[in-house]
Write a structure and sequence with these properties.
Chain lengths: ~290, ~250
């Protein structure tokens, strides 16, 4: 049973990350996931210090607030003429270091495992279950990731055309009266929530992989945004399933294996994608040459 | 919406600044209706900035822009916009028809999705620029000129009264140039007003009824045959206009 829970949780995390990752890639903000996933650390620590517990809700709020704070700082710096990548690196490293300082200052009170924050441990997911009216509903992390995924699906479905246009042509979006900044922060808010819901299981670093790698793979395989979103979710799920069994075979970190599968799938798409694949294009060129 | 007395575009004392450097100074201009207006000037003269300021894409440092007598925010639906082709990522996973449909998003409001009637309108717009057979083509597989025509079709689908086009003629093939000129003629026949940021001085007299000569300030504006003179061009381009001798016969000699 526990392996099913792990796979299901992993699949939900990978899917929700991949889904939003598509928009990050298309907006050329792939590294933003990295920034958000690191900058939520002080939020978690402060929430823990204030609430004095490891209840998920205060942690969640603290993390989401700092995730958004990070994107706001980045945006402010960019508007003042700081280069995009520099603005990003400055903001998230500053926030992350605040988190580390807080942990080291309050070591006695803070029972937070930094390794767990960075690398996560999805193998423990089945032991932390949610009991509702005395019924065991399954792992809490699964419900968290599922809720985040559902929220993203609903919001993106409602405002699909706005997200699409603000990603493709923000100038036109602005000209026809779409509040571009609102949708930017809405997307960043969703990324923050998804990151928070995921990082406990797969860790801050692997969240970045899940945000970007399946979406980047889907981008290579299709020329339609709708298909790209669907494919990325499918690839995310595949990563979870194959990653879990690979980890059983290798007796290694589950999250690590999931990410490695994601990397492997990306490599396959990079080489054999029907339109852009390196090998495919070489094959087409070769065929053309022999025809001539 | 189209009161005869109020001009399609009225700019009063508009200044725009990037950081502290002013890029447009005290522009005052009233446009004629139903004409094709060329916005002419050297690089960095603020031509695109003027369009973006008129569309509310940039904050004004001072002054006021009105479209048919009202601020732009109340007139969005009667304004069409063709941004510079390089302003977007053409590797975006979408096809030509979809890009044209984006022109209708403003009219769809917050939650409605495009339906088949909107698709028909988008296809009709593509047909007007001779691109209907490329409707399902991924946009990165279009040539630069074809991409420009898709952008033009998107603006046509908006069915606006006033159009702003940012350098539509730059780097396009002959077929596209012809298609754009054709569209400009059609729009003029429908009594629509079109503003076109333009670079090629050779074709100004041919394409535009009136011009705005711009170099940080408005140097001159009015009917092309009266304003597009060697004297005014000299003022607009300063000493940088090396092609003046060849264009002489195309200039007005009033």
């Amino acid at each position: 049973m526990s392996s099913i829970w792990i796979i299901l949780t992993g699949a939900l995390i990978a899917s929700s990350c991949a889904f939003l990752g598509c928009f990050l890639i298309l907006r050329r903000m792939a590294m933003l996931g990295d920034a958000i996933s690191h900058s939520i650390l002080p939020g978690i620590v402060i929430a823990f210090l204030v609430s004095g517990s490891r209840d998920p809700l205060p942690m969640f709020i603290g993390a989401a607030v700092f995730g958004l704070l990070c994107t706001i700082i980045i945006q402010l710096l960019r508007n003042q003429g700081v280069q995009a990548d520099a603005a990003m690196s400055v903001s998230f490293t500053a926030l992350f270091s605040i988190g580390i300082i807080l942990i080291s200052l309050f070591t006695q009170q803070v029972d937070l495992d930094l390794d767990c924050v960075l690398y996560g441990e999805i193998a423990y997911v089945p032991y932390d279950t949610w009991t509702w009216h005395g019924i065991d509903m399954g792992p809490r992390a699964m419900w968290g990731a599922g809720a985040a995924f559902l929220l993203s699906l609903i919001i993106v479905r409602l405002f699909y055309k706005q997200f699409k246009l603000t990603s493709f042509d923000p100038a036109l979006a602005m000209a026809i009266g779409i509040p571009v900044a609102v949708f930017h922060y809405l997307l960043m808010g969703l990324v923050s929530i998804t990151t928070v819901a995921s990082f406990e299981s797969v860790g801050a670093i692997l969240v970045v992989a899940m945000l970007i790698v399946p979406a980047a793979t889907a981008y290579l395989l299709t020329e339609r945004l709708g298909v790209m979103l669907g494919l990325s979710v499918l690839i995310g799920t595949l990563c979870s399933i194959c990653g879990y069994f690979l980890s059983v075979v290798l007796d290694a970190s589950i999250a690590g294996c999931m990410t490695m599968v994601a990397g492997g799938l990306f490599a396959l798409a990079f080489l054999f994608s029907p339109h852009q694949g390196v090998v495919t294009r070489w094959w087409i060129r070769k065929k053309l040459r022999t025809q001539i | 919406m189209t009161n005869k007395k109020t001009p399609p575009l009225s700019i009063e004392n508009v200044s725009v600044a990037y950081h502290r450097k002013p890029v447009l100074r005290n522009i005052t201009y009233q446009s004629p209706e139903g004409e094709c207006v060329g916005i002419i000037g050297p690089n960095g003269a603020g031509k695109s900035t003027l369009i973006k300021a008129a569309l509310g894409l940039l904050p004004l440092a001072g002054g006021k822009v009105s479209i048919y007598g009202k601020p732009y925010s109340q007139q969005r639906k009667c304004v069409g916009y063709v941004p510079q082709r390089e302003s977007v990522d053409w590797d975006f996973p979408t096809n030509a028809l979809d890009v044209v449909l984006m022109g209708l998003y403003g009219q769809l409001g917050w939650f409605r999705r495009p339906k088949s009637e909107h698709k028909d309108r988008a296809l009709e717009a593509l047909r007007k620029v001779g691109m209907e057979s490329f409707a399902k083509r991924q946009i990165s597989q279009l040539s630069g000129g074809q991409q420009q025509r898709v952008f033009l079709a998107r603006a046509l689908a908006q069915e606006a009264q006033v159009y702003f086009m940012d350098e539509p003629f730059v780097g396009v093939d002959a077929a596209t140039e012809k298609a754009i000129v054709q569209v400009l003629h059609e729009l003029k026949e429908q009594k629509k007003t079109v503003f076109v940021v333009h670079h090629d001085l050779q074709t100004v007299s041919e394409y535009f009824d009136s011009v705005m000569l711009l170099n940080l300030r408005l140097i001159a504006s009015g009917a092309t045959r009266e304003v597009f003179t060697a004297d005014n061009l000299q003022k607009t381009y300063g000493g940088r206009l090396a092609i003046l001798p060849q264009t002489n016969e195309l200039l007005s000699t009033k």
